Every structure is written in structure tokens, then in C-alpha cells.
């Protein structure tokens, strides 16, 4: 399929190591994908869902020990340990290659190795980058065919170039004790062994488009971020674009596809999705910041997705979708997850494949779907996909929003005072952990720019890169922070969230246009209560309640500042002095 020597070399090396019975090159044709689906159906690797209700949709179950990203087993194998920084696991590349080769040696015997040429970004876009993934998993092939652009045309644009990322994946034995997700930034290489789950094995996603790409971006003067991209079309027809970085399972897909409340739709406001997870950002010729979504599909969290919370996401999953670790309704071969409907069907097959009864298992708190169960759905299915989704030069960014899951401390929204202060706001992000990664859930941890698990180099250098990028952008986006997750004394979310987050986006855009005032406080600019539109939710959110959501507790923030200072110590002299100064300013403001 190609005469590219470097590609052939990589494929031959993968094959020599793992000794598969066959090698199949993925050409991207529907015919070939159909053959693979048929094979995977025959072995039970995927289960066909109801063709009338969910045409072209399948269910896949991963091993119960393999249901999320594994941060403890994810490594940045730069030559020097210092270059991986204090927030990444590191191992010497030569040692790690040796270990990985021992693990994968001969492990594709009796299996087929698939070669997937893929493009991150629309083929032909100046932002786009090519990868080649070798894998022994049909599930990976079928998912990559949704999440990225795959096939012959990718090899055509690559030509003889050596500028591609090498992604090696082998399922081996799905042994969690020998699972490794390794990035070699200096070699443009990724190795993933002993997993068959989503983000660990769809190597175009977090491994390439964030860990490797963030490193490439630092060297080449652009940025790879864990951000959604959305467009707000105003009644006058103009569309303004916002990017937002929230940690895993903290609301990116939901915000990217939001349907505005009636008081906005009546006036003609519309929201369009450009991306839901990853943004690649470059400075355009006009000095503005432009964003593309390098992906072609959505790998979204299923639980909580329903007709009310995210009808657009639900509609997106109605055809050509692969569901991973959701529950199966065997009566009609449809899928179910917690939060899809108020009441579960009487009987289901839970995500591990066992019978499940609502009144027995459900009543005992046994979940039918895994909390990190997901759908892989083509972006083109999305009813609100942006007309600019494939725009080769991306969309201009007016605002950058950071946010996390904080029960207290962080207000509903605030604006930073300028770019460097905005970088500070991103760098001090903290959020409660979620089921998207293995480990404890609900523990507050620092997660700068939602990139803690995804930055492919020293995070101090990453902060420096953000500051330097600001200098190159002539028309800097304004930077904000949001928190949809403040809770009351009973632990209930105070802010209704979802579509109602439009009320906050509206304030953000009005701030960008400089048509609305704000109150200055210790941490930045806070909305005046009367400037957040509450039409339609007055019963739920009174001006008093809103005032509470916008209040800064100085004592809590003094503690927060101590925590930031402690966190910053990790970075030693790699911490940009600009951020140190911002921290000093914050402390001074809190003592005023
Ligand atoms: P990744 O794909 O892991 O990067 O996650 P994500 O950031 O795209 O998160 P997603 O939109 O899938 O939301 C994750 C969870 O947060 C779901 O259970 C949602 O129901 C919940 N959620 C999203 N937005 C809101 C909101 O505005 N308020 C509340 N209370 N919950 C929300
Ligand atoms: C995340 O965890 O942020 C995801 C899912 O988007 S995964 O692809 O598994 O990383
Ligand atoms: Mn994500």
C-alpha cells in the first residue's frame, strides 16, 4: 500500500517482534471495515445491536481489569528524566524498549496484525499530522476508523516523509501488572501493551494528540490542549468560538453540544460543536489564535447522557456507534446506562456480561454500566456539528475557559485580569478525580489546564510555553474559569448546569466584547448578579443563590494559596517567574 521506507521499516519491525500470522493494511474502505466487523462478530469481540433502532451499532466489553486510563502505568520516556518533569512517570527509553519488547515478543502468534494509517486533523489541513498504528485488535481498528481519518489517502499525503508518529499496540494477555502506556517524545513513538481499552489503545487520542503533540507543539510553536471547541452563533449571525479545558469526565462533551435555554433560542442563539476533547491551537497570519479538532469522532462518557442532559450526544450515538462497557437490554438488543432513563429496564446484561435485575442488583447499588463506559460515535452524526468542523485553518478563539469539579472554593465563573494571570488560573486548576482513570474517585488534586495526565514533557516548561505563546498572539483570547459543580450542605449541585451553562458562556462572550461590567475581587473579575440571565430558572436559582455561587471565601482561598505554593515547589526553578508573581499578587489581594 506504500513504498515509504520508514513506514515499511516500522511495520516490519512490529511484525518481526510479535510474529503475527497475517498482516492486514487498513485501506479505509467500508468493504474492509465490514469484513472486520463480521470477523469480530463471529468471535464475540463485538455484539450486534438492534439494526432498526441502532443501525450499524455494536457493543464491546473490555476485561474488567481494563476499563479506564491507567495513570500509574503511563510513562514519558524522554532521554533525560528531567525532561519528563515532576508530574510524569519516567523510565529510560532504552530500558523501557527492552522491557516492552520482552513483553510483546511473539505475542501476535496466531493473530493478525493490522496496520492503521491515520490522520489527526482533516487530511490536507496545515494543522494535520499522520500516525501509523500497528495493533492486533479489531476493536482498535473499528474505533480508530471513527475517531480519526484512516486509510490509503493518509499514506498518499504522507508520501516518502518520515514525519509520522509510530504507534505500537499489542493486547498481549491484558495483564494489568504488565500494562504499559509509553510515550517516547524524541522518537515520535508510542508503545501500549496489555490493554484493550479506549484511551490506552486508540493511540491517536491522548497518547499522540496530547502527549506527543504537546511536545511537538512546544518545539514547533503551537499548542495541543485537552479542550473542547464550540461556536456560539448570535442572533445577528456572527459566530464566536470558545475553547474549554476541563479534566476527564468534567463536562467537555456536554458543554460542546449544549442546547441553550429557551430564553436564548427564542432570540436566535445557537451553539455548534467543533470538538469535545482535544484542540490543536496555532497563531494565524492575522495574529489571532486558531483551533482545530484533530479528531473525527467522540469517545464520550455514556452514564448521565440522556434526552434532557445532552440530546445532541444521544442523537449522535444512534448509528455507526461502538459502545464500550454499557449494559445490554437483551429483549430488544439496545443499550442502557445509569442516567439514560429514570428507571432501568427490569432486566439487563450488565457491562461484564452477567444478568442484572433492577429490583435486586440495581436496588443494591450494583451498576449496570461501568461508570466510565463510553460511546465511540462519528462526529458527522452530531446534529449540532459546526460547519467549520473540517475547516483546514481552524476557527478563531475569542475565549479560553478552564474549569473543574470543586464542591466549594471555586465560584461559578470568574475572569482573569490578563493573559499571564489567565495562565496562572489554568495552572492552579484543581478538580475531584473521576472514573475516567483507575484509582480513587472524588479526591481533589491539582490538574493544571486539565493536562496533568497528558503533558508529554516537563510541566514547568509547559507553563513557560503558555506564557511565550501569549506574546505571539496579537489578539489574545480572554481567559476564564468556571465551576458547574458547587454543592450545598446536602451535597446537591446548586447550579443546574448542562444547557443552562449557556448563561455563563453568554456572560463570557459579553466580557470579550467588553459590553458588560464586572466586579473586581481577589481572584479576578466576577459577574454582577444582575448580569447572569436567570429567565426560566428563577425558581431554582434566585439572585441570592447566584450570589452565593459567585462568592469567594477568603479564608478558603488563603488555604488554596498555600496549596498552590506547595504544588508550585515541585517545579523548582522551571516555574516561570511570571507565575510566581501572580501567586504573590493573589496572596496580597487576599490579605487586603
Ligand atoms: P472526558 O471524555 O473524560 O474527557 O470527559 P468530558 O470532560 O467530556 O465529560 P462529560 O461531558 O462526558 O461529562 C462527564 C460527567 O459530568 C457526566 O456524568 C455528566 O453528566 C456530568 N456533567 C457534565 N456537565 C455537567 C454540568 O453542567 N453539571 C453537572 N452537575 N454535571 C455535569
Ligand atoms: C479522558 O479520560 O479524558 C478521555 C477518555 O477523554 S480516554 O480516551 O480514555 O482518555
Ligand atoms: Mn478527555
Helicity range: 25-40%
Strand content: 15-25%
Q: Outline, from the CA principal axes? A: globular
Mean pLDDT: 98
- Unreliable runs: none
Amino-to-carboxy terminus distance: 68 Å
Bound molecules: guanosine-5'-triphosphate, sulfopyruvate, manganese (II) ion
Rg over CA atoms: 23 Å
Describe this structure in words.
The chain has 592 residues and is α/β, with parallel strands linked by helices. Helices cover 29% and strands 23% of the residues. It contains 18 helices and 31 strands. The strands form seven sheets. Strands 1, 4, 5, 6, 7, 8, 9, 10 and 11 form a nine-stranded mixed beta sheet that branches. Strands 12, 13, 14, 15, 16, 17, 25, 26 and 29 form a nine-stranded mixed beta sheet that branches. A hairpin with a 4-residue loop joins strand 10 (180-184) and strand 11. Helix 17 (554-569) packs antiparallel against helix 18 (577-591). The chain starts with a helix and ends with a helix. The structure holds guanosine-5'-triphosphate (GTP), sulfopyruvate (SPV) and manganese (II) ion. Sulfopyruvate binds at residues 69, 198-199, 205-206, 248, 277, 299, 436.
Properties at a glance:
592 residues; 9-stranded mixed beta sheet; binds guanosine-5'-triphosphate; binds sulfopyruvate
